[in-house]
Write a structure and sequence with these properties.
Elements (H helix, E strand, L loop, with lengths): L31 E2 L1 E15 L11 E10 L3 E12 L2 E9 L5 H4 L13 H4 L4 E8 L12 E8 L3 H11 L3 E2 L10 E7 L2 E5 L1 H5 L34 E4 L2 E14 L22 E6 L9 E6 L12 E6 L1
Antiparallel strand pairs: 1-7, 2-3, 2-14, 2-15, 3-13, 4-5, 4-6, 4-8, 6-7, 9-12, 9-14, 10-11, 12-13
């Protein structure tokens, strides 16, 4: 069958939040945050000048799909340090900001902060992560409960990374403090849920001849007589969609704020199922996983990072 076995099991995601398990390396002495988050608003058409060299369309106008992601500021609420051994990562300390907002602190218990900034306590720490909170209500959605997740900090040594995050504790970080226009990011989200689907749609197997058996849209054989069970490689019906997926290399075509943007982003009446985008937003080239209103995590590009960043020349946004 044509369906790939790369994603198994094809079951519903446990949460509405995608988990990022790998982070790119940063060859820099200055620490920086490697992730931000937003909410999918809708799709538009982008008219820009093709700046890809050695292509037939170089220097010509291109009309392509763009996805609008509302990106309210994220709040740095804590720092987490990990040690690493052959068994994996182990959390060594959590360092939280003082006087966190009630709508964030009520969802988890904050232990008493230790002082991990000493040389002795930071010696066995191998990785530093920022604990981030992003609130859908800040993007104009009705959900009040924030999404809380970790984002890696790379660049410099561990002490520099901790000092960098310590200055940001309790403060909001905007999208332009993490990424710039023209950079390429990876998008992680939970895809659209399709419900129960048969093997034809779910795995792409071929339909049977109408004279072969009573069924047409079923698999012809479930396997050999031995072993006496159905192997996991046999295409079966089941859940399709609502899976965690990461799509790579999505270029940021536009990063702006609706108050001072020269482009009209919101269609008349707002985006379907979302409404109007207010505040900071980005438009990435192409599509991203998930339905409207869904949390989209933006990570620094992990594959084939270019040596230089070219700022795209966007002429028009068609809503």
């Amino acid at each position: 069958h044509r369906g790939s076995l790369a994603y198994l099991p094809r079951c519903r995601a446990k949460t509405m939040e995608a988990r990022i398990r790998a982070w790119p390396k940063v060859n820099s002495d200055e620490p920086r945050l490697l992730a931000h988050a937003g909410f999918k608003a809708g799709c538009v058409q982008i008219v820009n000048i093709d700046d890809r060299e050695k292509t037939p369309n170089h220097g010509k106008q291109l009309v392509s799909l763009g996805t609008v992601i509302a990106t309210p500021p994220i709040l740095i609420i804590g720092i987490r340090g990990y040690s690493i051994d052959p068994r994996g990562r182990h959390a060594e300390f959590d360092y939280y900001a003082d006087n966190l907002p009630k709508y964030i602190s009520r969802f988890f218990k904050v232990k008493e902060n230790s002082s991990p900034n000493s040389e002795k306590s930071l010696k066995k720490i191998k990785e530093i992560f920022a604990i981030i909170a992003v609130t859908p209500k800040n993007a104009g959605l009705s959900q009040k409960k924030p999404y809380i997740f970790e984002a890696s900090v790379k660049g410099g040594d561990i002490k520099k990374q901790f000092t960098f995050l310590q200055k940001l504790l309790g403060k909001e970080v905007k999208i332009d403090q993490v990424f710039e226009v023209g950079t390429t990011v990876d998008t992680a989200a939970i895809t659209k849920g399709k419900g129960w689907e048969g093997p034809i749609t779910r795995w792409g197997v071929k339909r049977k001849q109408h004279k072969s058996r009573k069924s047409v849209r079923e698999v012809g054989s479930l396997g050999p007589i031995s072993p006496q069970y159905v192997m996991y490689t046999v295409p079966r019906a089941g859940q399709r969609g609502f899976h965690q997926r990461i799509e790579y290399n999505k270029r940021i075509m536009l990063m702006d704020n609706t108050e001072n943007s020269k482009f009209k982003i919101n269609p008349d009446g707002g985006f379907k199922h979302f409404g109007n985008v207010d505040g900071d937003f980005v438009i990435v080239h192409g599509s991203v996983p998930g339905t409207y209103n869904r949390l989209i995590k933006l990570r620094t590009q992990i594959r084939n990072a270019p040596l230089k960043v070219n700022k795209p020349n966007v002429l028009q946004v068609v809503v």
